[in-house]
Write a structure and sequence with these properties.
Homodimer. The dihydroxyacetone kinase complex is composed of a homodimer of DhaM, a homodimer of DhaK and the subunit DhaL. The protein is mostly helical. It has nine helices and no strands.
Length: 194
């Protein structure tokens, strides 16, 4: 179950992981993109973590709403509106329930509504879908599984986003947005949400 406390903790962990790994995220985006994913995300999470600090939230949806706003207006690139949509859909769902599965599922739907990517297109959707599937089957999610899901995007050919311009040449590289999404789910794990 999401609570105000574990949601805040997860988002702070996410911010820290993105900050610590932003150079790596941009390195992943270099062979199959324009090399800015880490810088884009880092700008967003810096704004996010300062917006969350010292703020009082009464409800989970308020936390996701704030996260949506900060990511939407500070990340930029393709990933900004996608993470923004994920958080906004999660906020909407959190007004009805604080259960983990429907909220994460709503996040995935938000990403797909915005970006029109399907499973196998080598985007962050691939990692989000794996998490939703595992939650649906009530499987335990650990850091190893998350890493595997991120790494399995290597084998895919990109059909959406900048990497799709490379066609077959996009095979063999981890999708950067899947890696940043991996950090998001590792953060949910460490915060005790999933
Ligand atoms: P840009 O490509 O504009 O430079 P970023 O580098 O910040 O943006 O983000 C790239 C990431 O965004 C990709 O690795 C991929 O995971 C994700 N992405 C791009 N297009 C889509 C889409 N249509 N649906 C889902 N995710 C996408
Ligand atoms: Mg990029
Ligand atoms: Mg860019």
């Amino acid at each position: 179950m999401f609570t105000v406390e574990n949601t805040l903790k997860a988002l702070q962990l996410f911010s820290q992981k993105v900050e610590d790994n932003h150079v790596y995220l941009s390195e992943l985006d270099t062979p199959i993109g324009d090399g800015d994913h880490g810088f884009n995300m880092n700008r967003g999470v810096k704004a996010l973590s300062s917006a969350l600090e010292g703020q009082d939230f009464n409800e989970v949806f308020e936390v996701f709403q704030k996260a949506a706003m900060e990511l939407m207006s500070n990340v930029g690139g393709a990933s900004g509106p996608l993470y923004g949509s994920a958080m906004l859909s999660m906020a909407k769902k959190a007004k009805e329930t604080t259960d983990v599965l429907p909220i994460v599922q709503a996040g995935l739907e938000g990403i797909q509504k915005r970006g029109q990517a399907q499973v196998g297109d080598k985007t962050m959707v691939d990692v989000w879908q794996q998490v939703v599937d595992a939650l649906e089957k009530d499987e335990t999610i650990d850091a190893n599984k998350i890493t595997q899901w991120v790494e399995s995007t290597k084998d895919l050919k990109a059909n959406k986003g900048r990497a799709s311009y490379l066609g077959e040449r996009s095979v063999g590289y981890i999708d950067p947005g899947s890696q940043s999404s991996g950090y998001f789910f590792e953060s949910l794990l460490e915060a005790g949400v999933i």
